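How a chain folds remains the central question behind the approach discussed here. No coordinates are needed to read the tokens, only the vocabulary itself. For completeness, the protein is quoted in full, as a sequence line and a line of structure tokens:
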Amino acid sequence: MKRKEFRELVSVEEARKIINSLKVTPEKEYLALENAYGKTLAEDIITEINVPPFPRAVMDGYAVRAEDTYAGSEKVPVKLKLLGNIPAGSDEKFRISAGEAVEIATGAPIPEGADAVVMVEYTYEENETVSVLGAVTAGENIMKAGSDIRKGERVLRRGRKLGTREIGVLASTGKKEVPVLRLPIGIISTGDELVSPGENLTQGKVYDANSYTLYAGVKECGASPLLYGIVKDDENLMGKVLETAVSECALILTSGSTSSGSGDVMYRLIAVSYTHLRAHET
């Protein structure tokens, strides 16, 4: 191929316009929640449950009917019949009627009939009864079902990049798999002078920094980088690697082989085999 000299380069603004005009369409894929960090949501997330899914205690204490405690004080405590205990995670069923209480742990579901929780610090037990040393109001020390997230609520929008907070929200709504955008981006570094980090650095060689810098940048954007390794300044070899990358990726980032030297052929391969060259940068 005949060498080409690039005497006129496009401006940064024009280069941005060219890049933004590229028709690159991400695909949708489903990833396990633990693998979705850093990815971009492919669709809105509408929760199918309340969070929390049931009214629960926010303090250790006793589930009661608030009206049963109104007359209680330190001098004259209200005595309530103790029916049992509900630890966190329990599916024990109790129904509280007038004059009754159930011991309850933080996070445990509120039993039927109860509308408040008395903190354990304001009670004492004896002879299967609990004495309440002060009044509580309806709803006190109870987190209502759906108080964090309500069923049917849109919790995350399409296009949101998933960080630690978003992963936590998805987990709390029971999402095991997440619809995310997949954009495979190939990375090709070229040059006889390049060696991979960790290899012996002989005279005239330099480590390939561009591949790993680009890889990290692509990951940071939420796309899926594919490394094709270092390609020597050989036109046939370069053409084969480029052909493979084109078949596997939506976008390809190449580094090197773009100047006017005898070994710089990447731009010529691209112009001849795939598209006209719209911009050049050295």
About this structure: The first helix runs from residue 12 to 20. The first strand starts at residue 27 and ends at 32. The two ends are 19 Å apart (CA to CA). The mean pLDDT is 90.
